[in-house]
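[Structure tokenization] protein backbone as discrete codes

[Encoding] learned vocabulary of local backbone shapes

[Begin record] amino acids and matching fold tokens:

___
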Amino acid sequence: MLDFSDFDTRGYRTVDVATGYGQWVETYEDTVEDVMDLALLDELTVPRWSGVRRAADLGCGTGRTGTWLRRQGLTGTLDGVDLTPGMLHRARAKGVHDRLLEGDVRATELASGTYDLVISSLIDEHLPDLRPFYQEAWRLAAPGAHCVVIAFHPHFIMASGMPTHFTDSSGEHVAISTHVHLLSDHVTAGLGAGWRLAEMREGVIDERWLERKPKWERFRNHPVSAALVWEREPREG
């Protein structure tokens, strides 16, 4: 397992996940770019979002992913889980989830075997070990379900030396505990939990990014995020 400290070029003060997102909540939606995650979701060919009957949004944050799912025609039940009360408060105000729970995405209180979609976006870099997450997603999934993971690309973390971070009310840049997971770590953890990889895409620093962050020209064409779609085999017979 790679240690982020080997790549860190920023040296920001680092806080734990709950503390960091609790402080970032006021400006989160103004700083996270849609091209990082939602644009990748737009490119996926599976699953058929409008056909989802019951979805678990793990690490639901302020409800960005849930809002996107509703815009794609998801009319079924949507349950969200997040560690941070402030994020859940923002998600609750959007009104797109049927139920919101405070908790750990690796050990939720959601019912086993009941979801035909488990989805998470930009939380993997905060997990020291991916295996408990993929195992929990498998526990929640019904036969034939999909699991969609949007990840912060390890290449970009290593090439930029940049952790997940935010600017606090005093103007200080603050890092949130960040871990480096190779894409092979995702594959190993997913397959080990019983999933089958159905689709994978990578987002790169392109013109859409450079319009927003011109200082990132040196990262042009570097991968910055990744989407992995997993399938659980339908029940035999």
About this structure: The longest strand covers residues 141-152. The mean pLDDT is 97. The chain is about 30% helix and 25% strand.
